[in-house]
Amino acid sequence: MSDIINGIITAFFSIVSAIINFVISPIDQFILNNIPGLSDLINLIGDFFEYIGSMIPWAISYFGLYPGIINQIIIVITFKITLILFDDGVKFAVKWYDKLKV
Amino acid sequence: MKRDFKYIIKRVVIGVLLFLIISFIRNNVFAVSYDRYGDKVYTNFSFVPTSSNWFDSQFVYDMFNNVNQVYNTSYDILDYSYVASYNTETNYYIYLFSKAPLNIDGTYTRINNATNTEYLSIQIDLRNSNPSNRKYTFTHAYNFTSATPNSCSNCYNSNTVAGTVNNTYSFTLTKVIDIQNALENPILNNGSIFENSPTRNFDKYCWSFKNETLFTVLPREELYNSIDLSQNDGEYTIQGGFYSFGYVGNFDDYYNVLRGNYTSRWYAPMPDATSAVTGDRFTELSDITHNFHYLKDSTDLHDRYYNLFTGLYLLDVANNDTYYLDNLNLLKFSHYFNTSYYFNDVGGYNYDIFKYHPTCEFDNDGIGGVVSGNRTCTLQDGTEVHLGPLEELDANLCIFVPSNYQVSILTENSQGGITGNVYLPDGDVDNFTSTVSVEEGLQPNVLNIFNSLQTSDYGLARIIQLPLVLFNDMRDGVCEPYVIPIFDQSISLPCGDTLFWGREDVQTFRDWWNMFFGGIIAYGMAISIYKSIKSLKDPNDDKVEVIKL
User: Distance of alpha carbon A91 from its chain centroid, rounded?
Assistant: First the structure.
């Protein structure tokens, strides 16, 4: 069961990631080719966030949390993200069913 | 409800931060006055030559051969530091290792106030100690009246150094290693030894073996492969002082070992297996003696002393051979894995774990004194280590592993009281193959989803996908000390484990704290599920939440 859930969630995020890449990459390419200064700036922003991200383990270490708890937090985040998809799907189905009844 | 939840979180976070700040100040600014362990356990690290002291008369006896020592030592400084000394006939090397910031502003004076007695006095200013600017004085008097070596029933090795009494010697304070600040300047060129060495709690796994046993150390990419330090001997000399006590982690762990928190009796290879080597001193030393090695050009007596003290008495230091760090003992204090292998000889004899290793070369069996010839041990993952008691004795292999990790061993003759996973297959009791593997624990597979994602490494796509990367950092990131460069200096902010959470005496609190924090998360999760299910009842509510990047 956990494999199935894992697969579903992985697929979901892969799709999201692929869509982002598909939509944004041409824009990035355009900026890179035509406005290289802006591209550098964007990369700097990315670098900054990445730098911040590199401090996450350090910051987390001050909370003294066990890996299990950290995983729990990620599970919550993952849950909240993926539940939206499930939630909207169910609502869409219910609305569609209600219309059919009428 | 939501507001209350945030309120609690905010207060908890503030409380934790305050607590850590106070701990930091306590541990560093007022380090010396802070009696962490509640008693004067650190007097064990003084110069007082007691039989239970690791730094006892045997070593001092070797150090000042033929010298009758009188010690007047101020102990306070030892609360957070210890002093090790070496003698090379003409020079005394004093190594000071300090957990607290330790400033040596002292003067070293030699006073001849008696015909046959000299005093060495060291003044050390613990500027960051409490009370501030308090000076500590070590005064050691050495009486040279004794023409013959004093009785030394448990001598470490009384035959190594020629018994030349030398009344004229210089006194050299070689170096002060400030562990607290060593993070900024890792002493090893690979920068890993002192880099973020958080306090660890070690689990001890022991297995008892009978007759020959074959061990296979499974590959693990984080493990160190052999490092040739032959090119760094000059830099590494002071390391010898540190490693002379064989420890690769920080001082809390070191203290734990020396304080005998690991109550089992451990034996390291001793210079002479036939001598009386039982006793606390050796057992304590042996806990840490398998972490070595260096060094080429170890020709002088100082290095020889070092070698003796580290258990490298098997080396013929006159040969200028190249030696290697071995990874079996994992000199790298990595975040992933750190362990040491000990050979416990219940019969009172001591075995060298490398003795039977195929890559170790010996000219003789290595027991009974200094071996002449090479000894190059290059132990890598995947190699096999034969552990074979020499006689009809049981032997125990014990591995110290940080509590964060699990050790699984495949053996059939495990010793009782082991925590962790121990599998007991069927097989011949007296001849079997054991497999040791180390795995990270507490990493549910379901969270691997963020690892497999293909994220962009530039542009807007990268920024948008950063949260996914951050999840990975959250999950897999390993804390490194955060270094803030300020002009020509830098401030190193150690990890939480180093400062506080890794300490042994807070583990209970940490358990409760995790329970509390985990409870809050679980509570939030339940609320979230409840709200989501509730919203399902309203099909017209099609509000779509998005992650705010």
Answer: 22
